[in-house]
Amino acid sequence: MTRPLTTVVWSTGGVGSIAIDAIRRRPDLQLVGVWVHTPEKVGKDAGELAGGDPIGITATNDADALIALQPDCVVYAASGPERDAGAVPDYLRLLEAGINVVSTTSTTLIYPPAYFSPEWRDQLETAAKAGQASFYASGIFPGFGSDALALLLTTQSKRIDCVKVSEIALNDHYPVADIMMNGMGFGHPLDFEPMLKTPGFVEMAWRAPIYLIADGLGVEVTEIRGSLDRQLTHRDIEVAFGTIKAGTCGAVRTRAAGVVNGREAIVVEHIIRMARDVAPDWPTSEFDATYRVDITGDPDIHCAMNVGDAVGHGAGHAAMTATAMRVVNAIPYVVDAPPGLLSSLDLPNTLPQHAFD
Fold first, then answer.
1. Structural domain includes residue 311
2. How confident is the model over 42-66, as pLDDT tens digits?
3. Which structural domain range is residue 41 located in?
4. In angstroms, how far is CA 337 from the centroid of its own chain?
5. For a tag on the chain, would you pick the N or C end, based on fewer CB atoms within 10 A?
6. H helices present in the chain, as ranges
7. Are residues 183 and 119 in the same domain?
8. Dihedral (CA of 325, 328, 332, 334) sign
9. Looking at residue 310, what is its pLDDT?
């Protein structure tokens, strides 16, 4: 029997906690360390930090100590407004040390050739080659719902006019106020300019899945066209990060379209509401999280993937679990892959091991 792959989880937020629980249950993976950001978590049992029973792994903020363990892989799940700016230096250290990395943090790295910072991408590629290690980023959207699922469905296509991928979600459970309010504009009047309204931001945010799909289908994207729409709530809404007052933004819709042969052929649409009755004229779903793929061509194909149970039964947790497992299930495949920056096009289906155990 081959030895289990030693693994470190980087952070104990929602996704990191799910990864900790998943790894400790698998005989082919061995959790050997957990990194935490806040001093209050240092010295605590990682199992308890993840909301479960003690597992005998003490959380630490000593990155050098975790690197010294020489794990086979790090599951990087740190979040926050810095995201890539805070994560890339960590990726470089880990890759240079010969440690494979799977990440849910840097969703713009799901397709490295389209990464918004060519300088950082080149540094990561150099570090991966130097350490003979691999890097892979995924999640659910961006990630499986925005590209891998679409490509799977196109295996039924004779002719394709347009591939459209969409997320329709109720995100009242998401607790990070800075991202939701300053980044996306929730809770502000429409004259407030969130990060999403920065020129080129929407195009940058969704370029990775657009180019990944294009690469998979062998076509060239010549332009990406982005748009942002917001709608007000007419009542106060209580959400995980506070209260969204009446007369402020309660729904956000972004759209990015990749132009192929002069037409908008690969489209990513993202709709987030803070309550179901906001923006009733936009596409809706009876589930808290729905991921759609609509392919026009021969044949027309329409697929809706609903994550979680019916309305009000924890779709937020289900989406986080799906996000975590996209990278946890990929660990054995990434460890076996050639060194470098990977996308889903470079890996086979990352099927779960021991899911029935």
1. no
2. 999 999 999 999 999 999 999 999 9
3. 5-140+321-346
4. 21
5. N
6. 14-24, 46-49, 63-68, 84-96, 118-131, 148-154, 177, 201-217, 315-328, 331-336
7. no
8. positive
9. 55
